[in-house]
Fold this protein.
Amino acid sequence: MTESVRKPSRRRSRRRSHAATLRVLAAVAAAAALFAVGVAVGESLRDNPQTGVTTTNLTTVRP
C-alpha cells in the first residue's frame, strides 16, 4: 500500500504571509502615529512660555 502525502497548499501560506505583512505594517503605522503625537506634545510644551509668579488682586468695593 502506498500512502499519498498532501503538500500544504500555497494559498494558505500566502494568506498567512499577507496577514503577517499586514500586521507588521499596522504595527509600524501605529508606532509612527504614536511618535508623531509624542513630538507634537513635546513641541507644544516647549512653545508655551513659562508663567511667572501668580498674583492675586484684592479690591474692596465701597457702597
Remarks:
- The chain has a mean pLDDT of 82.
- The CA atoms of residues 25 and 31 lie 10 Å apart.
- The longest helix spans residues 10-47.
